[in-house]
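Possible regression after last week's pipeline update?

I re-ran a chain I had predicted before the update to compare outputs. Posting the input and the new output here so someone can diff against the archived version. Not blocking, just want to make sure nothing changed silently.
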Amino acid sequence: MPRSIAILNQKGGVGKTTTAVSLAACLALAGRKCLLVDLDPQGNATTALGARKGGSAGSYEVLVHSRPVRELVQSTATPNLELLAADASLQELERRATLEPADRDTYCANLQDGNASIEFVLFDCPPSLGWLSIIALHAADAFVVPIQCDSFSLDALESIMLSINTLREASGGDRNRPSLRGILCTMFDESFNLSSRVYQDVRKQYAERMFRVVIPRDPVVPEAALRGIPLPSYDPTSRATVAYVRLAREVLLHEGTATR
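New output (post-update):
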């Protein structure tokens, strides 16, 4: 079975999609077969991989109409990396007032890829803790929380952790699933005193749950997204790319698959 990881934060602008796309690309370039599932109605992960949002059936069709994932995945320019794109109709699911547990479980089951060659599935979630993020969390083995080192990071992080605990209590079953794979500090600016202070504050509270790597602020990141090219392919030597390669190594070490 592939390892599945949800990338989420209810706060926007924290590098969530950049992390999902870059981590998936780095894992793929390291020889791991990956599937990136875009569950964000904005479709930024889809366009970041050079595909057109809403251009064809994708994650909504899989979730709601039980279309097989294998029928709808798209290949990308990055070897070993496939994409299940965002549908234009995803927003309809996010806006639902309620989601019955049976429907949630069906949607989670529909996300199972069914391809034994896939080693990692990454879910790019919306900037909210709505139904799509809840579905991803139920489908995932683990989750990663990217946070920008600003004054609101701790509040957002505490809110996410509280929501995850509430989700576990409400769902019953294995309350250790999904597990927190790590907190990732993004857009870190060493020349900005606030970044350093927030980083130290987060580290004091969550030291054992943080990735060792910190993602620096890098002007190459928006350039790559604008061109629809994953960061590791757009500029393999950029500071952000080097950091995401280190992140992929940390993930592989945790999974015990760093070497073959």
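Follow-up from reviewer: compared with the archived run. The chain has twelve helices and seven strands. Marking as no regression found.
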